[in-house]
Amino acid sequence: MSKITYSVPIGPVHPSLKEPMTFNFEIYGERIEQVNLAPGDNHRGIEFMGMQRNPIQIIYLAERICGICSASHPFAFCQAVESAAGIEVPERAQYIRVIIAELERIHSHILWAGVAAHELGFDSVLYLSWRAREEVLDLLEYLTGNRINYGIFMIGGVRRDITEKHIPRIKKTLE
Question: What's the mean pLDDT in 133-152?
Answer without folding.
Answer: 94
